[in-house]
Specification:
- The protein contains 25 helices and 27 strands.
- It is of the alpha+beta class.
- An eight-stranded mixed beta barrel has the order 18-19-21-22-23-24-25-26, surrounded by five helices. A five-stranded antiparallel beta sheet has the order 2-1-5-4-3.
- It has four domains: about 110 residues, PAS domain (Beta-Lactamase), CATH 3.30.450; about 120 residues, PAS domain (Beta-Lactamase); about 160 residues, Alpha-Beta Plaits (2-Layer Sandwich); about 260 residues, EAL domain (TIM Barrel), CATH 3.20.20.
- Helix content is about 40%, strand content about 25%.
Length: about 700
């Protein structure tokens, strides 16, 4: 059932008039409540030809003759006949029947409106009916001058009988109907003899009243129009309820703005308009920056007042033809409709930003926020009509998210490729942040051994992400995401804290060893780095100097070497060891050796893997080892994957090493057992 059909039936059921509908095959398929109450029969009993059960036997042939003839010609007709009432009495009915057509002109059936005129046929009864009828009844001459009205007329309109007799019916006009409304009404009266529908009239006090009205032509003895008769029921309360429900269904109950349902209806309408007339529309997704703090500091009541006030500011910044809607919370949507160029868009957006940034005074408190605005255009290009309203809204939402990530208090226009890169990284960052809170990260430990003696020299702590506690991810899968992001600093502190706790645990179990952790240069340059490091060390009950080593990533450019050098010297004072990681692959290897107080150099695995078959790599590694020895530095080779590589390194003077041939990184729970098993270290180590 369509919305218009539903609305018709709701109003018909509220009317006292008996109403029925028939399909194009003459079968009646619907009767209103008044009809069913009148006949005392159910809707099922009345369907198709069932209603004729109540038709007076003497009137059946005459009625059906006119009914069928008019139906076949598709003409309106009017007929009086007798219909049995629920109490068994036959009542005279004035039936007015009109054909129904679709918007395409296709015949769909008939609509009948029937009035009980039994009492009207009797003059005294007619007078009584006129006076006591619940319906408002009045008549006019052919010029619209009121000639009579009943008491109910006065009750509904506020005018007494003496005030309206001799005056034109135009005194009731509300101004709510346009010229076309009255043209169509009078065409129906002149062509069919009557019109039925809703009219909004004006009460004498000035307010509006809605009437379900039937206007009929009263003929003289020659069947010429003599006057007009109006019978109307006051349905204002029904309309008010309907408007109330529509308000609840389509408008935000806090701000009175359009809600999501009405927004999407208007957005679809606007998009359809663009396809018909050209031009474009702009959809703005607005999220208020800092609104949460208003609720947190001043309470939700103040927050609601602020949302109402800021919505008024935004409303003032746009045209009346534009749509402002609230999705919920502090999210608003604006449709800038019927745009032919970008001029209005360029003017409106700064105005909207300024409106959102305005200082508002609520309960003598000055409150101010800003806004992040995402913009999507429809169509994005002359042929870009292939998206729907939901997708357009999603694009604006995505653009708003980018605007917020770029610092807030700004706007951003949707760009599929660029935005997706930003959003993907931001989503990954949020996933990592959530992973930290869920304790999804863990450290695995790879042994470092003295290849000449078999002594376990220490362990390197290597981070792993046990995502959702179901899938273990290597650092290469996620560390690059937080590079140059504050979350990378947070993750770095987590590694240091976790390594120190593990050292303490191993010490309690009799394993005296050291752990090295990687430290990014950005972390070293944090003003509170030393304070945090010292606080974590002091938490450990039996921390031994030299048991924690910081491996500085030589692949990271260090801008302030003097500052880092001071920080590293403070680390030495705390009892930490320092190493230069990935030596030979970074920015200023020799300079770092000169400027920083590092004890150990770690030769990058990219050089180690080639020493057995590349003379160049062999010579390079040999020179690094000799240089480190000459400078009094320890040297350790990482990434050793074969006995041959270990033997070559020992021959070059490098005794310390780590790699898969020794052991892969393992969970902390496996370390003690591995150390015990390591006592039978590889043959090539024993014979070296």
């Amino acid at each position: 059932m369509t919305l218009s059909e539903q609305r018709f039936r709701e109003l018909s059921n509220a009317a006292p008039t008996l109403i029925w509908q028939a399909d194009c095959h003459k079968n009646r398929f619907w009767f209103n409540v008044s009809w069913l109450e009148f006949t005392g029969r159910s809707l099922v009993e009345e369907l198709n030809q069932g209603w004729m059960e109540s038709l007076h036997p003497e009137d059946q042939a005459h009625y059906m003759s006119i009914y069928n003839r008019s139906f076949d010609k598709k003409d309106a007709f009017r007929i009086e006949y007798r219909l049995r009432r629920a109490d068994g009495e036959y009542r005279w009915i004035d039936g007015q029947c009109v054909p129904q057509f679709s918007v395409d002109g296709v015949f769909e059936g008939y609509l009948g409106a029937c009035t009980d005129i039994t009492d009207v046929r009797n003059s005294k009864a007619a007078t009584d009916y006129f006076d006591i009828a619940h319906e408002m009844i009045y008549s006019t001459d052919l010029d619209g001058m009121i000639v009579d009205c009943n008491q109910r007329f006065s009750e509904i309109t506020g005018y007494s009988r003496d005030e309206v007799i001799g005056r034109n019916v135009r005194i009731l006009k509300s101004g709510k109907h346009d010229k076309d409304f009255y043209v169509q009404m009078w065409q129906a009266i002149l062509n069919q003899g009557f019109w039925r529908g809703e009219i909004i009239n004006r009460h004498q006090a000035g307010h509006h009243i809605t009437l379900m009205t039937t206007l009929s032509v009263v003929p003289d003895s020659q069947n010429n129009p003599k006057r007009y008769l109006a019978v109307a029921s006051d349905i204002s309360s029904i309309i008010e309820k309907r408007q109330h429900f529509e308000q609840l269904a389509h408008y935000d109950n806090l701000t009175g703005l359009a809600n999501r349902l009405l927004l999407m209806d208007r957005l679809n309408h606007a998009m359809s308009g663009v396809k018909r007339r050209g031009g474009f529309i702009a959809l703005l997704f607005i999220d208020l920056d800092g609104f949460k703090s208003i609720n947190d500091h001043y309470g939700h009541e103040m927050g609601d007042e602020f949302l109402i006030a800021i919505s008024h500011k935004m409303k003032e910044a746009i045209r009346e033809t534009d749509t402002l809607a609230r999705l919920g919370g502090d999210e608003f949507i604006i449709i800038l409709d019927e745009l032919n160029n970008t001029h209005y868009l360029e003017v409106a957006i700064p105005r909207i930003l300024a409106a959102c940034n305005a200082e508002l005074f609520l309960s003598e408190t000055a409150i101010k926020v800003s806004a992040s605005i995402g913009i999507s255009l429809y169509p994005k290009d002359p042929e870009g009509f292939d998206i729907d309203a939901e997708m357009l809204l999603a694009q604006a939402d995505q653009a708003m998210y980018v605007a917020k990530q770029r610092g807030k208090n700004c706007y951003h226009r949707f760009d599929r490729t660029q935005d997706q890169i930003i959003i993907t990284r931001n989503n990954s960052i949020e996933a990592i942040r959530l992973g930290i809170s869920r304790d999804e990260f863990e450290l695995h430990y790879q042994p470092k051994v003295n290849m000449a003696t078999g002594e376990v020299y220490g362990f390197e702590a290597l981070i792993r992400w046990n995502k959702n506690h179901t899938k273990l991810l290597a650092p290469s899968k996620f560390l690059f995401i937080v590079q140059n992001h504050p979350l990378g600093i947070e993750l770095g502190y987590w590694v240091i804290k976790s390594a120190l706790k593990q050292l303490n645990t191993w010490n309690e179990h009799g394993l005296k060893t050291s752990i090295s952790v990687n430290v990014d240069a950005r972390q070293l340059m944090q003003t509170n780095f030393i304070d945090i490091l010292a606080a974590e060390i002091n938490k450990q009950t039996n921390f031994k100097a030299g048991s924690l080593e910081l491996e500085i990533l030589e692949t990271t450019a260090i801008e302030d070497r003097l500052l880092v050098s001071k920080v590293l010297n403070r680390c030495l004072e705390l009892g930490l060891e320092l190493a230069l990681d990935d030596f030979g692959t970074g920015y200023s290897s020799i300079t770092y050796l000169r400027d920083f107080p590092v004890k150990t150099i770690k030769i990058d695995r990219s050089f180690i893997m080639g020493i057995s078959h590349s003379e160049q790599d062999f010579n390079l590694v040999s020179h690094i080892i000799h240089m480190a020895n000459d400078m009094g530095k320890h040297v350790i080779a990482e990434g050793i994957e074969s006995i041959e590589q270990g033997e070559l390194l020992l021959g070059m003077g490098c005794e310390l090493g780590q790699g898969y041939v020794i052991a892969k990184p393992m969970p902390a729970s496996h370390v003690l057992a591995w150390v015990k098993d390591w006592q039978s270290y590889p043959t090539w180590l024993k014979t070296s």
